[in-house]
């Protein structure tokens, strides 16, 4: 049985936690996803993505807690490298994750553009207990990455880029700046 303490133990509080999900189809897939922890625990995935297809077909999802901004942006636009993954019983997780959780889908609520996949925890593994400080560069990079992944439906990326990017450059570490360059390249 999933308990809130299982999630708390890996730093997942109430609300939405930004993670990288892993799923298995013909190939391993990774994509950023928000894990929702409210009255229920679920992910809401837009139709048309690989994650959507894999989840519908397999009913399994890995949730990886990752603090590497480059992996976040790389996993939006394409595949990660094979050596970014390791497997547990054949299911992919991300090597660099501080913690990984595996969930099974218990119920699907279909909506017009997306579906909610309600989840039951199968197992969790903590890999790295180092404490991370809050970094505005990383936070805003994630914000910009989300807008960048929605560029086909909204122009918010272009609106927010001039506001967020100077703060990302000022507060972020090298990996965050590298991730910003990657986003800039994608938006050319
Ligand atoms: C921080 C972040 C959070 C995201 N959360 C979600 C989400 O909860 N659901 C979703 O469908 N897409 C989300 N996205 C967008 C997907 O990651 C993006 O559409 C991705 O390209 C899907 O990849 P795939 O086709 O490999 O599944 C998020 C993007 C970012 C950067």
UniProtKB/TrEMBL annotation:
Origin superkingdom: Archaea
Domain named DUF447: residues: 17-126, 135-183
Coiled coil: none
InterPro entries reported for this sequence: DUF447_C, DUF447_N, Split_barrel_FMN-bd
Short name of one Pfam family: DUF447_C
The protein's name: DUF447 family protein
């Amino acid at each position: 049985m999933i308990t809130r303490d299982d999630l708390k133990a890996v730093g997942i509080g109430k609300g939405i936690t930004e993670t990288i999900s892993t799923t298995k189809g013909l190939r391993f897939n990774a994509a950023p996803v928000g894990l929702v922890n409210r009255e229920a625990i679920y992910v809401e995935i837009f139709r048309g993505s690989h994650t959507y297809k894999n989840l519908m077909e397999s009913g399994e999802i890995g949730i990886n807690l990752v603090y590497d901004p480059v992996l976040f942006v790389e996993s939006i636009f394409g595949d990660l490298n094979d050596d970014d993954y390791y497997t547990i019983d054949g299911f992919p997780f991300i090597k660099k994750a501080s913690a990984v959780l595996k969930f099974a889908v218990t119920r699907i609520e279909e909506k017009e553009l997306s579906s909610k996949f309600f989840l039951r925890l199968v197992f969790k593994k903590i890999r790295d207990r180092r404490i991370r400080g809050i970094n505005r560069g990383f936070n805003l990079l994630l914000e910009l990455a989300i807008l960048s992944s929605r560029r086909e439906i909204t122009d918010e990326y272009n609106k927010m880029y001039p506001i967020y990017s100077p703060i990302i450059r000022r507060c972020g570490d090298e990996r965050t700046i590298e991730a910003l360059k990657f986003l800039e390249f994608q938006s050319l």
